[in-house]
Specification:
By secondary structure, this protein is of the alpha/beta class. The protein is about 40% helix and about 15% strand. The N terminus is likely disordered.
Length: about 375
């Protein structure tokens, strides 16, 4: 006997169909609403932008500033610390290298249209020449530097100090033979034994200080006296040091740190030493490299950060330990290779007295040196 099949219910099947259909419609409508909403959002973004690219109501990435530095200091000396600043801050830096006097003349010629944000000079004279184009630095920056190493009007600050010195051969000259003043090198006993670099900026700053201390007439006589002793002419300090070490000459008029770099790299002991003439002589003049920010700089905020970095303990320790210069900020320990400034008598010259490089060049030319 076969059992009867359950009775077919059309009402139950229809109910199930309606329930499934409702769920499918709900899912479809939800997806459709999402697509429509996204489409409207995208259309709205395009409509809000007049350029059709960067919507003005959305935040845009701030472009990384690029500092343009005109540097009268050599690439070899200061490029590492500039690169370190860029690495630590993410600020891009473009550098134009050249002589300080040359760059100062360029800035004056370019006027308000100069692309330079910063002028980093080997000497205060070049900074003084363009001081009208430099902004007044913030007190917080100026106060990082000892008063004697910054401009009185706040337009620039010193970065590192350098002492003029007499480099001499320890093989052929006893220190006791050296005169108390560089005036003594006009004596004929030094004929054929000297080196100098009359076109070098630091030498010209020394002569500017000499004019302040001795007056133009005596300074001219010194130039003519040295010239009469047939000095070997060099373009810079480094070649003078090498010439003394190679036994070509006995004496050179240089900045102190060039010899220290030779000594640092020497394996066998280099036969040259520095001597600082006594009694406040111009041969022991203390100079500073300095830095100022152009008034029309569009990157003044980043420029101030750069100046502050050079005056920080990191920047100052770089100069004293790597380039063997004197720090200008307070409480910075100097390299053991440096003679403390208190150990030799410096001439009493204000940095403002070193600004007349134009007059110095004229005097050097009149003396027949250039």
């Amino acid at each position: 006997m076969i059992a009867a099949a359950p009775a077919f219910s059309s009402t139950r099947v229809l109910g199930s169909y309606v329930q499934v259909h409702s769920k499918l419609m709900s899912i479809f409508l939800t997806k459709l609403l999402i697509v429509v909403a996204l489409s409207l959002f995208i259309v709205g973004l395009a409509g809000c932008s007049s350029e059709g690219a960067n919507p003005t109501h959305l935040p845009t990435a701030t472009p990384t500033p690029t500092l343009t530095i005109y540097s009268g200091r050599s690439e070899e000396l200061v490029s590492p610390i500039i690169k370190e600043f860029s690495k630590l801050t993410g600020i891009k830096v473009a550098v134009r290298w050249g002589g300080s006097s040359e760059l100062a003349a360029t800035i004056m010629e370019e006027g308000e249209n100069t692309p330079s944000d910063i002028f980093y000079s080997q000497d205060p004279g070049a900074l003084g020449a363009v001081s009208a184009q430099l902004m007044t630095l913030p007190d917080a920056t100026l106060n990082k530097v000892k008063p004697e190493f910054r401009s009185t009007n706040g337009s620039w600050v010193g970065v590192s100090g350098r002492a003029r010195s007499v480099a001499f051969s320890t093989k052929r000259v006893a220190e006791s033979e050296l005169p108390d003043s560089i005036w003594g090198f006009t004596d004929q006993k030094w004929k054929g034994r000297l080196a100098w670099a009359p076109t070098n900026g630091s030498f010209q700053v020394m002569v500017t200080g000499m004019r302040k201390l001795w007056g133009d007439q005596k300074t001219k006589e010194w130039l003519m006296g040295i010239h009469a002793n047939k000095p070997t002419v060099h373009k810079n300090n480094s070649t003078q040091i090498k010439s003394i070490g190679d036994g070509e000459v006995d004496i050179g008029f240089v900045n102190h740190y060039y010899l220290l770099r030779f000594l640092d790299e020497s394996v066998d002991g280099f036969p040259v030493r520095n001597y600082h003439p006594k009694a406040g002589d111009p041969g022991s003049l203390i100079m500073v490299s300095g830095i100022g920010i152009l008034k029309n700089s569009k990157q003044s905020e980043a420029a101030i950060k750069f100046v502050d970095f050079l005056l920080s303990s990191v920047g100052q320790q770089y100069f004293t330990s790597k380039t063997f210069e004197y720090p200008v900020a307070e409480n910075i320990k100097i390299s053991t290779a440096l003679v403390p400034l208190s150990k030799f008598q410096q001439p009493n010259i204000d940095l403002a007295d070193l600004a007349d490089l134009k007059g110095t060049l004229k005097l050097i030319q009149n003396a027949g040196v250039l």
